[in-house]
Request: fold
Amino acid sequence: MEPSVLIPLFPLRILPLPAELVPLHIFEPRYKQLLQDVEARDIRFGIFFDHPLNDQRIGSLMRLESVTKRYPKGELDIIVKCEDIFFLEDQRRTYPGKLYPGGDVHLWNRNLNTFPNEELYLQYNTYRMMRGIASQIRSCSIFEIANELSLDFSDRYKFITLPENRQQKFLSHKVNYQLQLLEHEEKSKDVFHLN
Reply:
């Protein structure tokens, strides 16, 4: 295993997946300080999934994409992007010399550009078509598919913690479930119009 690295941490009850864009409102002094450091030095930080479900102590490695609004009292609206997943080895109350927390983490080191197999790709495009969304190009990753499915916390956590060889099957089941819901929705529209 590679040596751990110390990163700033932002504990939240969310679990962004790789390639996901997340809007955040920053208002606490310690996290305003974190964002000042992120902007000044272009550093990455971790969102630790602060949830009882998280027995593997995972989190998301984030990079600032943009500041969408600055408020007079220093609050910020920002967009961040998940670049990787990490495992938290040791959480520190404060990052050295800072107000915000830090942690020693091990990065996931998986291929984040894993393309869907043929079955998942076809299911996903059917799902997008039924939702009135343009067909997805072949180069989408399985993480982009997971992001579009709006998985809840437990499904996100399960997806991330599954072995790589089972992640596509998991997503295939989720897409199939969504397809069934969309088909039932379409049928109920037909029944409504017939009455």
